[in-house]
Amino acid sequence: MAFRFRGDRLYLVGRKSAKGGKALVIIDGRRRLVSFYSRKTQNRRFIVGPRLSKKKVHSVRIVNLGRGRRGTLVEIDAFGFLNG
Description:
Blueprint: E1 2-16, E2 22-27, E3 30-35, E4 42-48, E5 51-64, E6 75-82
Antiparallel strand pairs: 1-4, 1-5, 1-6, 2-3, 2-5
């Protein structure tokens, strides 16, 4: 998944579960590994929310790595953007 947004903060909300895997979140070329694993299912959980240096157009790419502790699911419920 790829998109662009304008602002200085990105929020990623998703589901963590026992079948949760890992995703690679790439923002403006910087990489961050994110886990969607949890022993208990947690709906609509805050996954990641990096602060970005400037209020400008940022490019975001999210890649499901297809691996995890026990599963491969990457379930994203919502994105939030802050321009504050």
